[in-house]
Amino acid sequence: MAISRESEGGKWVLMTTAQTPTNIAVIKYWGKRDEALILPVNDSISVTLDPSHLCTITTVAVSPDFEKDRMWLNRKEISLSGARYQNCLREIRSRANDVEDKEKGIKIAKKDWEKLHVHIDSYNNFPTAAGLASSAAGFACLVFALANLMNVKEDHSQLSAIARQGSGSACRSLYGGFVKWSMGKEKDGSDSLAIQLADEKHWDDLVIIIAVVSSRQKETSSTSGMRETVETSLLLQHRAKEVVPKRVLAMEEAIQNRDFVSFAQLTCNDSNQFHAVCLDTSPPIFYMNDTSHRIISLVEKWNHSEGEPQVAYTFDAGPNSVLIARNRKTAVSLLQRLLFQFPPNPETELNSYVLGDKTILQDA
Ligand code: ADP
Ligand code: DP6
Ligand code: CO
Fold this sequence. Notes:
By secondary structure, this protein is α+β, with helices and mostly antiparallel strands. Helices cover 36% and strands 23% of the residues.
């Protein structure tokens, strides 16, 4: 690993490791009102996945031997010169405190953090930049690990406002369960942060299955895609002002009451409207592919034949499908249907299924 190699023969190195899950939005964030601070045009709501499945693991280290800040992502060195990394590093450094490791005899005074450099080694255990929210897990983990290393005392909601400056969706990965990113009103973004709506135990009947339709890197990143949408889509204005505010209230109520019928309808409608907004962008952005559309049809037909929703689907900025089953029994049936219609096969596009939740296969 990069970090241990760098510290060989040096004075000392202090390091810490964090693991952070990804999150999938059920009411989507798409569009910024402030690009630099990453302030959204609407509130969003997500569910945080179980960290044992899709997660980022980040080790951060500090040593007087390090000559500059450096970062490795998935074992390759990347540049930290971008504004997003710089903003996160600056915000955390400015909140650093004294750190003492008595065993190693290391003492770092608050003022020393401005001069010391860090090395960051980050690994995503799932496809990066493929529409499974690697930027969310990645920046949440980076901010959390740096905050631990530098003994930052801020609570999770304040850390979420820092992670937001790395990637908007990252602010929601600081909490488990159901999380709302409140868009905020302040110009400086101080009130644009994450709030936990319900913890991971609140609705533990739900089972999440992710169909990895393609692990390929998407052609249009979320950042540039939503910029083009803000510049060209009229539908986005209607969505942000008229549709999402009402949907967010309805979704909060559905989550509080564990009302699966409303939850599923809102989730599917919001995913479809987000992709409609992408189509309304000029030139149009296609994140879903034919397999994604066939998965939607499978779920819609099944839900219709049962008389009410059994499964909700949602797609982020990529073709991969996140399916939320109302309970374990439904999840087993869903998996059987998927395996029958879309057998995992390296020759086909649909290559694997991942559980977003740890509950299903043990008891099924
Ligand atoms: P995704 O759908 O995977 O979130 P995005 O286009 O939103 O795709 O973001 C991908 C970008 O997020 C990567 O190119 C990289 O800059 C950043 N990123 C991904 N993983 C990490 C990580 N572990 N640590 C820091 N940044 C990351
Ligand atoms: C479709 O958070 O990746 O996943 O803020 O520019 O880094 P940046 O974008 P990002 O966008 C996520 C968009 C989405 C919906 C969502 O997660 O709410
Ligand atoms: Co992203």
